[in-house]
Amino acid sequence: MTKSRYRSTYHRPWDIPWVRSTLLLCLTLLVVAMVIEGFARLNIYGKMLMAQRSRDRPLKRIVMVGAPPWLAAPILNSLAAEAVQFTISNPRHPAYAAELRNPLNGKILQILARHFTAHPSQGFNAWIKRVNYVRRVWLPHEQIIEISCQYRRPAALVSVGGSYYLISPRAVRLPGTYAPIDLPQLAWLMRISGVAVSVPSPGKPFSAPGIKLGLKMIALLSGHAYSSQIQSVDLANMYTNVPPTTPKIILKTRFGTQIYWGLPPGKEGFYEVPASRKLQLLHDVYQQYHRIDAGRAYLDIRSDEVLVPRTPPTTQTGQ
User: Fold this and answer.
1) Closest to 298 in 3D by CA, of 263, 262, 257
2) Are 103 and 54 in contact (CB under 8 A)?
3) Cβ-count burial of 73 within 10 angstroms (0-12 exposed, 13-18 middle, 19+ buried)?
C-alpha cells in the first residue's frame, strides 16, 4: 500500500493559536462581567437592607458626646442645634437633610465636621478646637448622630472698654460678651486688665503682647493656696511711660487691695528678685495672715523683704 502524496490539512479549532487566544479572552471577559454583576447585585441588596434598617430606625437626634464637665449644658445644646440647622434645616443646601438620613452617606458627616471648625464665629462654634469624629449610632428603634470634639477651655477674662471676654490658654477669644453684672458667675477666673487691644471675633486670637503676658502671669499664679484671692493682673503701667519706681505689673486682690509684682518673669535682672522668690513671699504672707495682702492696702514684693504701708492692718475677716 502506498502512502498518500498529500498531508492532511484538518486541525481542531482550538489548536489554532489565534482562536485559542480569542477563546481565553472571551472567557476572561465573561468572568469579569459576572464579578461586576455580582457586586452590583450585592450593592443593591445591601442598600435595600440599609434602607429597611433606616425606616425601622429613623434619625432622631444629633448629640454632642464626651464633653468636659465644665462646659455648660446650654452651650452643648446650642452646638447640637447648630448641627441640626446646618444639615436638616439648611435653606442653602436642602439636599443635606436627605443625605444625613441616608445610612450609606458618610460624606455628609465629613461636611458637618468641617462646618464647626470652618465657621468659628458662628454661634458657639469657637468653643470647638477640633472635631474628633462624627458617626452614626444605631439604637433599637432609632439612629442618632454623635459628634465628639476637643473643646477650648477658658483661661482668663480680658477687660476691654468696660466689657469682658473669655479667652483660651492660647489667647483665642471664646464666644460671648460679658458685662460687670456677669462677673460673679465667672469669679473663678482671673482677669487681665490695662491692655489696649482690639477685640477679635470669636475663634480668633488676641494679637496684643500684653494678653500673652497676662496669660503667662495667670499660669504662674494659678494652683497655689492663695490663687483664689487674686482677682486680676493689671498691666496698665507695662506699656506706658511711668517713673522707674512704679511697678510695671500690679496684682489686684478680691479685697480691693494691691500687690506690687513689678517686672515680668524673667526680666527682673539686678533690679528685682526673681519670680520664684516673689511666689515664696506671697506664700509666706498667706501662711501667716491667711490673706495674700496681710490686711494692708498694698504689699510690695519686688525686693527680698515685703514692704507694706505704714498704716495699720485692716480688721477684715481673715486677717
Assistant:
1) 257
2) yes
3) exposed
| CA–CA dist 243, 113 (Å, integer) | 53
pTM of the model: 0.76
List the Cα angle 211/213/214 in 5-degree steps.
Answer: 65
Query: What does the pLDDT profile of the chain (319 residues) look like in tens digits?
Result: 455 554 555 556 656 676 677 777 788 888 888 888 777 777 776 666 555 555 555 677 889 999 999 899 999 999 999 999 999 899 999 999 888 888 778 899 999 999 999 989 888 999 999 999 999 888 877 888 999 999 999 999 999 999 999 999 999 999 999 999 999 999 999 999 999 999 999 999 999 999 999 999 999 999 999 999 999 999 999 988 889 889 999 999 999 999 999 999 999 888 899 999 999 999 999 999 999 999 999 999 999 888 888 655 444 433 3
**48-52 CB contacts, 8 Å cutoff, 24+ apart:** 50/103, 50/104, 51/103
Nearest to 109, CA basis, from 67, 137, 128: 137
CATH class name, domain 156-300 = alpha beta
Q: Which cell goes with 193?
A: 486688665
Q: Which of 267, 193, 302 is nearest to 237 (CA)?
A: 193
**Cα 189 to Cα 178: distance, rounded to the nearest angstrom:** 13
Q: Which helix (H) or strand (E) holds 217?
A: helix 209-221
Sequence-distant (≥ 6) Cβ neighbours of residue 124 within 8 angstroms: 75, 78, 79, 82, 175
Decide if 175 contacts 188 (C-beta within 8 A): no
20/15 Cα distance (integer angstroms): 7
